[in-house]
Amino acid sequence: MTAAPPALLHRVGDQALAWLHTNREYFRLTDDDRETGRGLVERLKPIGELAINMRVLAREGVAGSRQHDLSVRLLDFAWRDLLDGGNVLADLQAQEPLSPVPLEIYGSLHELGHRHPGLEAAIDLARTTASWQAVEMLPNRRLGLLNSERKLGLVPSGDAEQALDATWLGRTPEPWTVQLHIAYDVTHTVFHLTDWGAAPDRLPPRIADYLALYLPAWAADWAELEHWDLLGELLVVDACLPRPALDAGLWERYAAAQAPDGAMPVQHAMPEGGPATVFDLVHHPTLVAAFASAMATSRALSSDVAA
Question: Which of 51, 231, 247, 255 is deepest in the core (most CB within 10 A)?
């Protein structure tokens, strides 16, 4: 098995981050989003993903000077402009006290030093209710909530092992049943369990062994289908394993799919349309590209040092 060159890995993330910074205004909530609340959670999702990516870049410490500058500026933009210093999250928490979304987004921002005492007080109040633990959600989503609570130094409101055992991945079923939505359940289970790659040791050995065995076939299938968004997430999963399971050729195909301006298509080639339309379609795979690049670059550099 060959390893992808660190320069290639780094270039994917550098170009993705540049595109995100250039198109940052399209993350912005409209007045209608804030006043009516229609679709607010969906509009907040990419902002939360942006915050997670900035946290990963800061944590892995593999960004060059340009990436570091862009990531700091993007994070400041997200907190001050997009979230109004946390007031948007506090308002949503007040409107929907049992929603996990404000906590999930705030977790990464809190780790990076941002604070909103009013939001924290509202979260603390909601967590005193029996409904907080009773709210029904997918098991991998429950892992994400528990991880967000941990980020804020809160006592988790559930048991992570029980949540993992209830996921598709936790049950290690037949590997050929991995359809598209199941594949995303698998990747997000790994992300939440490892705190977005910060603690790969939280992967139980039986899960790591299962992934090491079947990840190459899954990644090869989705690469053949040119599903770059999912392939990017699977490349992150590979970086969370004790030993890499994927060959460098997958990274080369993935990098070749990236548009010259740094955007990453979801599947096949870049979509057509106006800037706002294209942003809505490709911001997620581009964020994934930045995430995968940071994880893989860090892994590659660590391997070089160990060697």
Answer: 231
Quote the distance between the C-alpha of residue 178 and its chain's center: 20
pTM for the model: 0.94
Q: What are phi and psi of 267, to 5 degrees?
A: -150, 145
User: In angstroms, rounded to a whole number, what is the distance separating the alpha carbons of residues 126 and 149?
Assistant: 12
Angle, helix 65-76 to helix 40-60, in steps of 10 degrees: 150
Q: How far apart are CA 283 and CA 265, in angstroms?
A: 9
- The 3-state DSSP class for residue 1 equals coil
What span, in angstroms and rounded, lies between the C-alpha atoms of 157 and 188? 19
Coil vs helix vs strand at 22: helix
Q: How far is CA 263 from CA 124, 255, 260, in A?
A: 39, 11, 7
Q: How far apart are CA 33 and CA 31, in angstroms?
A: 5
Residue 114 has pLDDT above 50, yes or no: yes
Query: What ranges do the domains of the chain cover?
Result: 6-306
155, with CB counted inside 10 A (0-12, 13-18, 19+), is exposed
Q: Which distant-in-sequence residues (6+ apart) come within 8 Å of 33 by Cβ?
A: 39, 40, 43
Instruction: Look at residues 142, 135, 136, 128 and name the one whose alpha carbon lies nearest to residue 170.
Output: 142
State the Cα–Cα distance between residues 280 and 154, nearest whole angstrom. Answer: 34
Helices (H) and strands (E) in the chain, counts: 15, 0
Give 253-279 pLDDT, tens digit per residue: 999 999 999 999 999 999 999 999 999
Cα distance between residue 188 and residue 169, in whole Å: 10
